[in-house]
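Quick one:
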Amino acid sequence: MNRKELDPEESPSARFGQQLRTLRDERGWTQDELAERAGCSGAHISAVETGRRSPTQRFAKSIDRAFGTTGRFERQSQAVRQTALIEGFPEYVTHEERAAEIRLYEVGVIPGLLQTPEYAATLEADAVRREAITPEQAEERVELVAKRQATLVRSPSPLIIAVLDEGCIHRPMGPPAIMDAQFARLLEFAELPNTVLQVAPFVMGARRPFSLPITILTMPDRSLMSYAESSQRGHLERESTFVLPILTAYHQLQAEALSQAASVAMIEQFRKGTP
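Output:
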């Protein structure tokens, strides 16, 4: 019998379907046998396994009960449902929340891990105005920012190094009060014992090794991952060998960027221009 082969990198739906099929095969169950245990039809199982139907939360919970996987498929289904997010980002978030070290470089906007709720809401409201996303998707994005920040409040605390292009500081987002609160948030971040905050000034010019945002994760086992986005999707690199040159370039970026003390002074200076 011919079976449609799925590329798990193609989409969250494909990844869910591939994992569902793999675990079913490991148990030696047919689609109908799994369907009986999950309370659905074999045709439904087939449609999810081949990516023709997206898994609902209810379906994912029934699959977890059938396999005894304690929330594994429910978490995967959440990534499928996060349609407001760029392809690849939901998977990245699952690694970010476990990382021992997070190194990020951002261009143009304050990164999500450092955003205030008001800054995040203003950013997404503009995307709604441009009809790039719906109001519901904007709300989903803002909620995810809060969830990502909450996962970092754990013990032991992850090391977070954030290098912001100077444009992140210059670009206003909403009325002055929102920027004032955002600047205050950055200054609070710099005071934490597990963080480093630096600004990459415009005068770095060609010495800046990155032209686009990049994030590097060091996992608890010291393996490395990197995440970067194009206009259409995100790419998560899981092979440490390929991430090492990116990490080297990041260290060079830090060496050329302003020190934390100088970066804080720059932010304080900009903050004086807000009421």
